[in-house]
Amino acid sequence: MTKEAVTNPYGLEALWTQGDFVARGTLIIMVIMSMGSWYIIFTKVFEQSKLMRSAKLAGDSFWAAGSIKKGSDALDEASGCAGGGAAQRAAARRTANVIVQEV
C-alpha cells in the first residue's frame, strides 16, 4: 500500500510558493503582528498576576488590622505610597461621621 501526497491549494505552503510579493508581504506582516500581539498578551498576564498578588496581600493586611485607621495605614504601606491616600482617608472618615450622626 502506497501513500499518496495530497496537496492543499488553500494552505500556507501554496500561498507562499504561488503567491506574489503582495501575498508574501502580507503574510510576513501578519506573522510580525501576531508575535507582537502574543508579546503584549503575555506581558499583560504577568503584570495582572503581580497586581492580583499585591491586592490580595493588601486586602489581607487591611482585614487583619484592628481598626479602620490601622487598616488604612496598612493599605498605604502595602501600596508603597506613604501619605498618598490621605485625601481618600479623610473623605472616608467624613462619610463615616455623617453616617454615624444620622443613625
Structure description:
The protein contains four helices and no strands. The protein has one domain. The mean pLDDT is 82. Helix 2 (21-64) packs antiparallel against helix 3 (68-79). The chain is an all-alpha fold and 103 residues long.
Percentage beta strand: under 5%
Mean pLDDT: 82
- Which regions have little confidence, pLDDT < 50, spanning 5+ residues? none
Number of helices: 4
Number of domains: 1
- Spatial separation of the terminal alpha carbons: 89 Å
Shape by Cα distribution: rod-shaped
SSE order, one letter for each helix or strand: HHHH
Quick one: how many beta strands?
0
Largest sheet: none
Brief sketch in words of this structure:
This protein has 4 helices and no strands. By secondary structure, the protein is mainly alpha-helical.
How are the SSEs placed, and which strands pair?
Elements (H helix, E strand, L loop, with lengths): L11 H7 L2 H44 L3 H12 L6 H17 L1
